[in-house]
């Protein structure tokens, strides 16, 4: 077999998308030892940079060595003791995932649901909190399955007034949509690098409020083999996972540097570089860039004569769901886009599989050339599939948005 | 902040060690979509290559997206139901880790221990199996904390005769010491890339025997959000982790390609390249290379007048523990080696912390120049620390081993 040699692709689906080439190059840097001063300095720098990305003063802002899903599970298994109640407002596939992970952690899971393509009014969530009295409210910020972004600004207050902690899965939104951890009262939030953050999947940024840290620390249990007489027994039930035990992971990232996993150095380099590039750009500039290219793509697909799915007022900046026109084979068009143009767009899950395409504009691919190329190619494939669309309608509509944006 | 720019290092500790530059370059390849034909082909190629590394015909030979510790937990949490008995023969720090992870999975953990620096006679393990009647025997192959390698050849037979499965943590040995999954009757084995395999930490190769697959499949539980009417409820208790649920991970790597985590593409490229390079070299050649450079380092440290720790007859090829001479400050010598020469060697854990140095010769650093440079530098630092050592004694002794090996 030969060296890995991927075909040329432009990844315009709901993520993962093309990583920023600077992030890929950072991963090629040589390794250092786990307790090398350069290693611990790099971890500390990553914490500083990610605090800016998360817009937080949280000391405990670190990385879990796994994909975004590992970050979700680390937060939930560390916060939730068996039989704790967790409330999950579900508005798409990834809300179901939070419920699933909560159940596997042994928690008593309560869900409320709203139709795919809509979000919750904060009052609906407050009513459910009052009824369920959960230990944790766990909510997805942007659910790529529907492209909706749940407004979060009031949820921290709601949770705290009822003695609950607020956990947010920001995998699909962070870096491309405003996210204000402290201002919104978010107690725990997690992400992955492969959406708006410009990196590959495999490292999960996490931030924890002081209140979340107190909850997790109560359950701290130093593992056999490195425990000393000074290590107290846990007060709560021990965290069910060793690998995803945030109490131990905090001690590995903290001044004690207590041996836990062997840090995935190349992914640490990648995560540091993702944050470094975003901080250099400025978070408001980065989310503004996603808003602009998202608006251009939205206008573009409408210019092609396609109908947009869901409550567009609550759409994430970085992905749009378009209804597959009647009589058009959605998977055939996606396959032709990939074969003819090397462009990937997505389908969706469950009730939306085969009903919508999801087109992303995020991370390194939140770019004018990527938006216009995708619209031009999609126009050709739609016409070949028998859908009547005005020549140049998509590109023209997107260009109009760009002209408005920079007069 | 600037781009990541690590200092020049030669990592001659117990791992992680320098990654092969070809593996680092593979990680810089562009990403593709999760269900791109190139992606699924790459996953399938990785399975084929890793079967050769593991010396197995096991269909279920795949990667877990996390460090070696994630692989251990995936195996144990997927194999062990709460209250199942697991027997862990402990001969160092990482045996304690298996016990810890087993306990967090809810299992009833039984351990037997032998002094650090020794291994078990298979009869001792058989006696314990007869007494405990475990569901799983979980053992470390090579425990870097002591440098010992437990002989495994009889353990599969012992486990199977008593209706147990055999799990082996091969993190520190695979690729540098013979490992024969099928011949030895190993039911589940896991590793990480950062020791003899030439890569960075962050991807965990796993192989599962048909018997292990049956045990895990019984507990298969497709998660909410993607479950269909055809998916049966689990027969055993559902696996407690979602992220490390090998039943779901097998379906993601198998023909159904059921959405689970977002595969860490760059780490997949790295893991494929690690295996590709080993298979191209030949597994017997690779383990022979580790044996040769390990023997040279062993002779070299003795040539410096240092005493070797533990039962050398059972030493792993890829690491040696040497007693820190009386009156020498071990951490000061390690620090000076790093500052003056950019060379890292390790200390150890628990009873061996400050008692031994651990010097590795593994992966990309199982090389003659790395061995000789380390011995020359160590000689200087020993002399500066006041330890009388014969000029050139280490390098000369190592060279003699190389001359014998290639007459």
From TrEMBL, chains A, B:
Name under which the protein is recorded: Pyridoxal-phosphate-dependent aminotransferase family protein
Organism: Promicromonospora kroppenstedtii
Cofactor(s) required, per the database record: pyridoxal 5'-phosphate
GO molecular function, one term: transaminase activity
Keywords assigned by UniProt, alphabetized: Aminotransferase, Pyridoxal phosphate, Transferase
PANTHER family cross-referenced by the UniProt entry: ALANINE--GLYOXYLATE AMINOTRANSFERASE (PTHR21152:SF40), AMINOTRANSFERASE CLASS V (PTHR21152)
Family per similarity comment: Belongs to the class-V pyridoxal-phosphate-dependent aminotransferase family.
Residue ranges of domain Aminotransferase class V in the record: 41-346
Pfam families: Aminotran_5 (PF00266)
